[in-house]
Amino acid sequence: MTRVTEALYDHGVLKPTSDLGLHEQQRVRLIVEPLEEVAEDRAAAFARLRAGIESMQFFSHGRLPTREELHDRA
Hints:
Blueprint: E1 7-10, E2 13-16, H1 42-55, H2 67-70
Antiparallel strand pairs: 1-2
């Protein structure tokens, strides 16, 4: 079973923030990846999102199909 969870490092001990469902003395492999604690600027994130949306090309050429054409029940 592979599981990704967060933990706090406190006085030399990693303390998971949620129950891991492990047996006592069970051996596990740890891959430690520090989490950034800096909150991202919300306005900058929104500007990047809008720029990404504006760069997408959602164009339809010609007429759109009618509901009956989309749901052909013949």
